[in-house]
Amino acid sequence: MAVKEELKKLGLHFVVVDLGEVDIMENISDEEREQLKIALLSSGLELMDDKRAVLIEKIKNAIIEMVHYSDELIKVNFSDFLSKKLNYDYTYLANLFSEVQGTTIEHFIISHKIERIKELIIYDELNITEIAWKLNYSSVAHLSNQFKKVTGLTPSHFKQLKDKRRNPIEEIGN
User: Fold this and answer.
1) How many CB atoms lie within 10 A of CB 33?
2) Would you say the pTM of this structure is higher than 0.90?
3) What is the pLDDT of residues 98-137, one digit of tens each?
């Protein structure tokens, strides 16, 4: 809404305002671009001109959407999913992500899956077997090993903790 409001103030017409993306009907001048940048910053938003940075954000958003917000079972291979969704070769996406973020897409995905596991354990609606199935782990042992490697705790030990620590989504993998 903030983006739409700023575009209207500048007299710009838009076709689509979506998460992280705006399609403006007219070509905007450097001055208008700078005004938009300043206006968005005052709203706590950032205008990203760098195509690589935009693509990195799209990768992150696709992963976050798939791991945290999709009710579907994660049954697709993440590399295939990202390639199809973003229309780029996965090797290019993986190399760009590693170069810019200093970590691999795989580690970013694992970090988010571990946070999702923590969330599902805290909600206590699914058992570990169901969580492993939902997040497409090959086995409970695989989930448990990965969870312990990242957190230092087994899922069952985490479940017993009184102070269950979770990380905000925007801090994961950074």
Assistant:
1) 13
2) no
3) 998 999 999 999 999 999 999 999 998 999 999 999 898 9
CB atoms inside a 10 Å sphere around CB 155: 22
**pLDDT, tens digit, 9 for 90 and up, residues 51-62:** 788 899 899 999
Q: Which alpha helices (DSSP H) does the chain contain, by range?
A: 2-9, 30-42, 51-64, 78-86, 90-101, 105-123, 128-134, 140-151, 155-160
Element at 24 (helix H, strand E): strand 21-24
Q: Which domains does the chain have, with CATH numbers?
A: 2-47 (no CATH), 52-171 (1.10.10.60)
Interacting residues of 97 by C-beta distance below 8 A, sequence separation 6+: 56, 59, 103, 104, 105, 108
In this structure, what token pair is assigned to residue 26? 């007219």
Helix (H) or strand (E) holding 16, with range, is strand 14-18
d(CA 33, CA 19) in angstroms, rounded, equals: 19
